[in-house]
Amino acid sequence: xxxxxxxxxxxxxxxxxxxxxxxxxxxxxxxxxxxxxxxxxxxxxxxxxxxxxxxxxxxxxxxxxxxxxxxxxxxxxxxxxxxxxxxxxxxxxxxxxxxxxxxxxxxxxxxxxxxxxxxxxxxxxxxxxxxxxxxxxxxxxxxxxxxxxxxxxxxxxxxxxxxxxxxxxxxxxxxxxxxxxxxxxxxxxxxxxxxxxxxxxxxxxxxxxxxxxxxxxxxxxxxxxxxxxxxxxxxxxxxxxxxxxxxxxxxxxxxxxxxxxxxxxxxxxxxxxxxxxxxxxxxxxxxxxxxxxxxxxxxxxxxxxxxxxxxxxxxxxxxxxxxxxxxxxxxxxxxxxxxxxxxxxxxxxxxxxxxxxxxxxxxxxxxxxxxxxxxxxxxxxxxxxxxxxxxxxxxxxxxxxxxxxxxxxxxxxxxxxxxxxxxxxxxxxxxxxxxxxxxxxxxxxxxxxxxxxxxxxxxxxxxxxxxxxxxxxxxxxxxxxxxxxxxxxxxxxxxxxxxxxxxxxxxxxxxxxxxxxxxxxxxxxxxxxxxxxxx
Length: 535
Known about the structure:
Layout: H1 10-14, H2 31-55, H3 57-64, H4 68-71, H5 73-96, H6 98-115, H7 122-136, H8 139-150, H9 156-184, H10 189-208, H11 217-221, H12 224-247, H13 253-275, H14 291-318, H15 324-335, H16 337-351, H17 354-372, H18 385-409, H19 415-454, H20 461-475, H21 481-523
């Protein structure tokens, strides 16, 4: 089958392992390595943004005097902004140059983060969140191509390992920072924190990233309708997924409208790309070797990462009544091993087939999730460490190997399409994981609550003894028997709800383990990448 041609850019050519048209870094100059540090800092902040906002939603709502339903759109507007620019960012980098795109994104994120906490109303704050998503959404799509084209060939795998580490690191330090800001400074620092790091990133990009000429010729060939269909369709789908659990999915007209309209626009995008003479994305590449499996694996691992990243904080907050700073102390110990494994993992991938490393990572994640199914209502800080450190190592193995395999499979002519597809898989996989796990845990909690309630007989001796113990405990604070009985009944109901929540979280870990096993099976279908012809 003849594939549609895609524009060939400097970034795409440099991804070819034997291309010599773009000079790589050497040890005699520090300047380009400063640029590498800048793009990696941007990748961390891009992932960090949505996570810390999720942890700080209660503080943001309180600071802006918003209700629960109004505040729920904060993360949605940020994610939609990232989605809209993510699909177009690889082409924007090819047309205007990576340096210009990154600097513009930094400026946009800086202004949005600075002005967001000063917003006079919800509409203004959501607009700032959207612009912050657009700004941060430029960071991740260009990072991989810049690392692969700039680092010496022997160091590329280490750069990719550092890039992959940012997901675990940013996921697990967010709660600590948000809790510290809320306790010691102000809720406004949830946004203002970026204003301290972005000037450093700006200086690194300005100094270390080479300036490229504007390639206006690509504007003439760019499929603008396809770009518009992709941005609109994916943005609508993302908003529908993000709001689905809160609004009860198909029982809400807004969610139905978002998902149906997003699906129709996305279908129009797919049909156009398959028939257009010069498509925005060459979707026929989906028939090429390993690409579909790699995209599904990326979405699957993001699904698992975001699923378990939802379960543990929710358990600690709802069952143990931990605050964000206490939750962060648990998650922080999960993030720290990433710093120690980067170099050894890079060395391993230089010597071992990435498919084996990917499979081992999926197996470690599966085992870790099964270990976490031993969860009880007594678990707190230390009880999670063994399983979650194992899962963190597995995710580092899997994601790093996956990106290495993706880079190896890239053809210079198709790098823009593959880069955009990887970005979409990353965003949608994470959002589907969060939406699924929120809904799954909620439904399973209702089921377990009902089943436990069926076995609580008000006339049974065990129930009477438990109520009597509760009544005696609260009776020291009141002489009214009716009040003591009511409080005892509430305590029994709370115990049932707590146990139902624990069982639902166990089911969530089982679902994540099943997803990891499916990723392991999918990894077994990967073929050895075919050698590419010389440039």
